[in-house]
Structures are given as structure tokens and as C-alpha cells.
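so the lab meeting is tmrw and i was supposed to have these ready like two days ago... anyway. pasting both below. for each one the top line is the aa sequence and the line under it is the C-alpha cells. i havent really looked at them closely yet so no promises
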Amino acid sequence: MNSGHTIIGGGPAGLTAALVLARAGAKVRVLERRAAVGARFRGDFQGLENWTQRTDALDRLAYLGVEPDFAHLAVHEVTFYDARLRPTIARSRRPLFYMICRGDLEASLDRSLLRQARAAGVRVRLGERAEEAPRKAIIATGPRRIDGLARGYVFSTDLPDQVRAMVSDEVAPGGYAYLLVWGGRATLAACAFRRDETPRVSREAAADAFRRLIPGLELEDARPFAGCGSVMSPTRFRDADGRLYIGEAAGLQDPEWGFGLWYAIESGALAARCLLESRDYAAEARRAFDAYRSAAFFNRLLFEVAPRSLIGQTIRHVGGASDARERFRRHCAPASGKVQLARACAWVLHRRQDVPAILGGRGSITGASPGALYKAASPPGLPSRRTARDTPAATAEEPTHQATIEGIRSC
């Protein structure tokens, strides 16, 4: 059996790393300072995006050794609104994303990862703060700075299942607002991002805007929540004492829209695999994530400088495609020209001290994408890769809703 590993932080990044290590035969302990996993969240819904890679999100999880036994709903349709509240309906045969629940709830992603880690033999110590991280520990303690902020409500509703998103500076400066409805529960929130100041965001403005658009939307039993992120931090994957940084602690979050779940899960798995195989995690992480993050940063810069009318046209162009998932994938893809321009813009802005050196780090910025994580041979303890072709969408996606709707009602 391998020598023991210590992981500081019991979020998706830390628990995924623990799961991969334990299934390969290593002794692992996870120290989580909060008394429960998912304590940052209040049962709010989030999206596990499914457009960045051609491989389906559930197949990607299976390859990494994560069983999707948490409640999840395949989302094929999203209604987008521009600043003038004009709707565009984006549709896709394959899911655009999977709606999931976060928090210390039975059906949540957080509880699922905790169950799987403990079943694999991981010692998870809740409510235990690490006074000092040991050398060569894995650090998964969340964001180091705040430049992204979300405020919203969770509440009961009689509305049918639906997903709506709004891009409006009046509602969420530099960000967006969203409404996720599933199984009689709903999450309504606004997210804002700012490079040079604390983001300003109003959950009340988002609620008022959606009320004008959706008859019957009421928030009588609404419970407020708030969350923060570090979407433009410089990345740090390793320190002088050999500690490995994963997820938000590594500065990994999407600069365009703030998505972070895949960065968390994949960086956790990658760090574990590098430890098992004696590979350089920092170099592997730069190759895996830098190009996609650079492309997202370029898209974020365009979003901030482009006229609002052009943003509306872009929403209609991307959302109105016959296959919105493929259009989203192309939008996020790290084309070489986009990535090089992003690098140049980041350098200029860093010299002006408008942003940190978020695209810093040695090595080629056009390195491998996260898809490279699924091309290598499976390490010990991981199942063989399945592909989306192995499970036709027509038979795999619709039962997902029926099988998990009772679980999500508990959220």
C-alpha cells in the first residue's frame, strides 16, 4: 500500500482526488474545516456544463471514477434574454448541461462524492481545521480572492421545469442572471464579475426582471443565498514544499461565465494520477487547462468591451443555431489565434495592473485540452472509458429525469 496522502478541503476537487487515490490503494485522509460537505451552498441548483467536450459529461465522470448517483437532469433547452429582454431559445439533441443540486443534502453532488470517497476507504474528517498543511499535501480550500459574486434565492414553485438566462448590465453588471426550475424547486440568482473592484449584484433586480417575463413566478418561501468565486486569479499548481493546488485553490475557474465544477473535478483527478504515476502535476495542469482558460479570458474581454447590441446579436447567433451545443463548443474552443490574442491582452492588462497575471506560467499556452485527460490509459482503480456512443442519447437522457426527480424534491 502507498504512503498516506493528506487533502485539505472536502469540496468536489478534494473528494475527487481522494477517490482516485484511494481506489488505487493509497491511504488518504481529507480534512474539511466545515461540519458538513457542501456547506457553502443552500440546496441551490447549478449546471454541470456539457458543451466544452464532445464526450458527454456523465461519461467523463465515469472515466474519472465518479459515479453519477446524485440527482441530475439533462437540459436540452434554455431560453436566453438579451439586455432588451428579447428571448432566444437554444436547443440541442444532446444535453447542453446537467442540472445538479449543491449543499449538505442527500441528493446533492457533495453528499454523493462524500459517500463514494468513504466507500473507497478515505478517512474524511469533518469539522477539523488543518493548522498547517503538511508538505506534499493536496490543497483544495476554495478561492483565494473574490472577483465573482452570486446572490440569489431558492424557493418552491408550481412552474414547470425550465431554464432561463439573462444577460443585462442593469440586472447583473458584467455577468448574467438565471432561473433554474426542477421538480417543484427553483433557484434564481444573479452573477457579476469585475476585475478591479468588488462585484455589485442584486438578487432583487434579477427577481423583478424574471417576474416581468414569467407569469406565475412567486417567491413566497424564498431563502436567500450567496456565493463567491475567483475567476481571474493567477494559477498556482505547486509550491516550494511540494504541495499541489487544485480547483479554485489553484485559481481554476472559467473567466467568461464563472463555471468551475469541471476544473475542480478534473484537476483533482489529475493531481491524484500524477502522484500515483510520479508525473509533474504543474506541467500537466498547464497543458490541460491553460488553453481553455485563455480562450475564456479572451471571450470575457470581448464581452466587456463589445457594444451591448453586439452582445445581443451574439446571443441570438449562438443560441439560435440548429445545434446549440455544437455552437457553444466552438465558442469555447481554444483556437490558436484566440489563445494567442488572449495571452497578449493579459500581458498588456497586467502591465497596466488592471488584472493579475491570470495566464501566467511557463509552457505553451496552446497545450493539450482537458480532453487529453480522457485519452491516456486508465490508471489503477479507474474504469475503462465509455463514450457517449455506447449509450444512445435517446435511451439514456430521458430516464435520468424520472430516476432522480424524487431525490431532488428532498433538496
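ok protien two:
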Amino acid sequence: MTEATAVIVGAAESDDLGRAPDTSAIELHAQSIRNALAQCGLSTDDVDGLATARMSPVEVAHYAGIRPRWIDGTNVGGCSYLLHVRHGVAALAAGHCSVAVVAHGESGRSGVGHPPRPVDLVSAAGQFERPYGVSGPPTAFTLPAMRFLHETGTTHEQLASVAVAQRRWAARNGRATMRELITVDDVLASRLVAYPFHLLECCLRSDGGGALVLTTAERAADLDLRWPAVTVLGGGEALDAPAVSMMDDLTRSIGFRRAGADAFASAGIGPADVDHLMVYDAFAHLPLYGLEDLGFVGRGEAGPFVEAGETSPGGRLPMNTNGGGLSYVHTGMYGMFAIQESVRQLQGRADAQAGSPDVAFVLGAGGMFASAAALVLGRA
């Protein structure tokens, strides 16, 4: 079996997104699993593979009533779910399972049944950054963002344009948390969180979940699918440095470039073949890195590209069409929602449908550029 014979037959999110104060993190997992299985006429009895991050697959399997013979608890941050899909493809190819579920659920806003995030003081960041006041993503990401602006000539207005472009998509999405259109002036007038990031350039804090159902193309042909299957054409995964201050180059992500190159190579395509793009956007600078590191634009061209509306509705490269982590939802580990949107776009059922894309590229980040993963998805 090659990667192209694995397909996604179910992709669904939790009943509520954004605010779910009465729903625990594990129930967000279970809701998403039930909703995804319902799309392909399967039940938990059919599932023999399970992957989760942060919350143990042992807990989720027991709660959801799944008895897997393939298990993946890889947790390298918000891109973990992209790795899970890639690992699931390999498991299907090896015969380790026949139906695999990748599940996510976080009560990132309400904190209901939400596993704690302990501070790892023996980690590289804990020893060499935290003592100097770097205490979370907004402060950690300022160093690479400022260097990127300086070296590429990207302006603050162009950085703000990322939030503006994604809000244009979110305005068309009934599930998006933030839907009111904004301007560059609105972004720059919003509260300064940590220079150069204003509030509207930072991700949301949300509750929500999502799940994917993977199987073989042969098995999918016998299922009663609500939506067409989506083929996993390729993928990649990579690591960078454990702390931003240890990156080889603050203005480029080694992880983005390596994972992206492997994804393109395994799918046998290049940037020109991509119709739809999702780039993890915990903060507004990440899509700019993604555009350049993946080769969609040249050095220093990402800011002007977004500012010109090329990633907005009607632009040449629809990007983050659900509104992204800045406007749609961000539970803490956003990667699942990026995959969900690409699947919806390829199936032609997205709220903010961007034409009829044939090939979608998903790029995820984990930690502060510590890890990365990429997927290439296509119409079956």
C-alpha cells in the first residue's frame, strides 16, 4: 500500500466550538468521534486504531468505547494530529489496523476536565529562557517575529494584514468565533500584548474538539459515505530547536522547510499544484513563515502577498479559509482544525468554500517552532 491508498472518510468537530462551559475535554473527544463516525456509517465497534495527544489514548479509548490494536499518543504540540494522520497511513499500510480514528478535545477556554500544562523547568526553555521572563507563547514568539520583520522588510501593516485576511474568511463561516470584519487600523489599534503582537494578531482561547476517520480506499468503497473520501497524498514531519533562542535561523523554520519538502516529495507535487492552503496561525507571523518556507513566495514576499489580498476570498491562494486560530477557534492545539477545514474544502462543503480545490496542503507547528508537520490531501 502507498500513502495514496489511505483515505479520510469522516471529519467532524464537537457539537459546540468556542465556548462549551458544560462539556469536559474528554467529552469533546467523544462528541467529535461520534460525529465523524456518523459520516461514514461506522460505529466505535469498527474502530481498531486510535491516536490522541495531551489526553491519554487510554482514557479516550475507555470513555469512547474503543478497543484499539494500534495506538498513537505522540504529542509534540499543536501539529501532533498531522503526525497522527501520517502515522495512521503507515499503520493501515502495515495492516496494524483497518479503521483509525484521530481525535482531539480541549477545554482551552473553560478548563473543564482540562489536563494541566506543567512548567518543565528542566527543559531547554525552562532553564535558558523562562528565568529571563519568557513565560509563554506571546513572549517567546516575539524574538523570531521581530527578526523576521527586520530581515525581510515586512511592515507592521503587513503583519496585521494576516488577521484582516483571515477575518474575511471567518465572516463567511457560521461556526467562527470572530466574524466581524476588521481593518489594518483596527488590528494596530487593538491592545498591545507583547511587541509586536496586538490582541487581534494573537490566537483565540477556545473550547472544542475534532476527529478524523481513516481507512483504506478499498474499505471506503464499501461504506455509506455522507461526503466523498479525501485521499492522503503525502506527508512530512520534522523538529527544530527546543527553544526559540536556539533556532539556527530566527527568520526561517527548519521544521516547516523539512516537513514541507517531504510532503511535497511524497505526494509528487510542488507549490504550484496546491489549490488550498492551511498554515497553523497561533500568531499572525506564522502564515508568513509558512508561505516563504514552503516556497509559495520568495524571501520577503509573504507580507506584500497577504497585504495584496492574494490569500483572501478571491485571491490566488486561499489560505486559512475557516478564519484560522485568529478568528475561527484555537483550543491550544490547533492542528486538528486545520485538517478539518482542508477536508471540508476538498469535499465542497465548507461554509466559506474556496472554489473547487483538488489539492490542499496543511502545515502545522508545535511549540515555538519546536516541531512541524505537513499533509497533502486530494480529492479521491
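from a quick look at the 2nd one: Residues 80-94 form the longest helix (15 residues). The chain has one domain: 3-114+204-379. will dig more after coffe
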